[in-house]
Amino acid sequence: MSDCIEMLDSETKAVETPEDHAEELRLWLRLLTCTTLIEGEVRGRLRQRFDVTLPRFDLMAQLDKAPDGMTLSDVSKRMMVSNGNVTGLVERLVESGHLDRRTSETDRRVQVIRLTKLGRAEFRRMAAEHETWIADLFADLTPKDVRELMRLLAKTKASAQKSAGRRRP
Amino acid sequence: MSDCIEMLDSETKAVETPEDHAEELRLWLRLLTCTTLIEGEVRGRLRQRFDVTLPRFDLMAQLDKAPDGMTLSDVSKRMMVSNGNVTGLVERLVESGHLDRRTSETDRRVQVIRLTKLGRAEFRRMAAEHETWIADLFADLTPKDVRELMRLLAKTKASAQKSAGRRRP
DNA sequence: CCGAATTGTTTTAAGCCTAAAATGTTTTCC
DNA sequence: GGAAAACATTTTAGGCTTAAAACAATTCGG
Q1: Cβ within 8 Å, pair B138-A37
Q2: CA–CA–CA angle B25, B30, B33 (5° rounding)
Q3: Which residue ranges does chain B devote to CATH 1.10.10.10?
Q4: Residue B80 to residue B60: CA distance in whole angstroms
Q5: Which tens digits make up the pLDDT trace of B44-94?
Q6: Which PROSITE patterns does the record associate with it (chains A, B) (predicted)?
Q7: Where are the alpha helices (DSSP H) in B21-82?
Q8: Which site from A10, A141, B16, B33 is most exposed, i.e. has the minimal number of CB atoms within 10 Å?
Q9: pLDDT surpassing 90 at residue A110
Q10: CB distance A160–B39 less than 8 Å?
Q11: Scanning every residue of chain B, which has its alpha carbon at the shortest distance from the alpha carbon of A24?
Q12: Ordered strands of the A70-71 beta sheet
């Protein structure tokens, strides 16, 4: 124990410093790094292989899961982005022929959007390749790692949602 | 083993369906959801409490760890954003008096930026509160959860970097 | 030493993104 | 029925972000 003299302040002052949340902070930064890294990689590959942006791809992914279409609000909630953001994104995808947008018959406030035939075909083509990229990016994780990460991230999501709810009920 | 009849297609058809990466895809989406959720929460709180944007805060956080300053390239690598992005961010923070920017004496290509006294003081004030937000967002994770997540995310980061490196060596 | 690659930064063009205000529509609740 | 609240979307203003091209300064190899 001759090294005790070299101990860090952060260790010795555990009592005086009321709360030490350095671990959580490091965890958050690591989480952010992982996401940024993977996102950047996916963004670059989508652009190079298919000349499509990540937000466009994400929006098409939402619509592919909803054959009967979605409202802009639905999309905005699912993608966790602002309403105004979706408006512009949809505009450009309608323009390029990937999306079909029509006003709901029963509620004239609502715009329902769907993938066009072209949009669906292109998305499926991209999604197939996209899936292999993701698999490759996570390739060093064992199935057990994946399960465990899924579990811990579910817990994280629940914790964050609870905390966010406390502030904005 | 009487339950074998109930086995899922994804298990029984392992040979016919060449590769099933649905699990990794779900993991990626969950990772993204967690990050987006927390990031949005932090962004909102920074804006409401301190009227500062998240990118500005992130940049100041980098500089707070480097008392002798950093070059724009350093910052861009650390933050994992493009060079041009940093240029604009720095411009606005110099304008508002939070950053000091000067050309290196030894290499006239290089711009060295530092926090000003004001910038450092403001950042410290924000960082203290920011740390409690993060702690709160992760509050439901046990110390063991945190350690395990750190480990698995480190593994994820390494895996993703390896995969990214294979594409762009 | 000098041309060629390399490195650091800025510029450009386009798109993404947010918060807040504005607009139009429907529902609610007297 | 009609005012008020709630809802869905768009608009606005400003900032963020990227990829690629342009520019400037340094280093490298012959």
Answers
A1: no
A2: 130
A3: 53-128
A4: 15
A5: 999 999 999 999 999 999 999 999 999 999 999 999 999 999 999 999 999
A6: HTH_MARR_1 (PS01117), HTH_MARR_2 (PS50995)
A7: 22-50, 54-64, 72-79
A8: B16
A9: yes
A10: no
A11: B135
A12: A70-71, A111-115, A99-103
Q: Which of residues 11-50 of B touch strand C (CB under 7 A)?
A: 40, 43-44, 47
Separation between Cα atoms, residue B138 and residue A26, nearest integer Å: 11
Q: How far, in Å, is the CA of A103 from the C1' of nucleotide D8?
A: 11
Q: Could you tell me if A126 and A46 are in contact, meaning their C-beta atoms sit under 8 angstroms apart? A: yes
Give, in order, the Cα–Cα distances in Å from A59 to each of A92, A98, A116, A120, B60: 12, 11, 13, 12, 33
Would the CB atoms of B26 and A150 count as touching at under 8 Å?
yes
CB A159 to CB B138 under 8 A? yes
Nearest alpha-carbon partner for B77 in B86, B64, B67: B86
| CATH 1.10.10.10 is held by the domain B53-128 | yes
Out of B35, B137, B138, the one facing A35 most closely (by C-beta) is B35
In this predicted structure, what is the pLDDT of residue A45? Answer: 97
CATH code at A54-138 = 1.10.10.10
**What is the ipTM score, two decimals?**
0.89
Protein-proximal nucleotides of chain C (any atom < 7 Å from a CB): 7-13, 15-21, 24-27
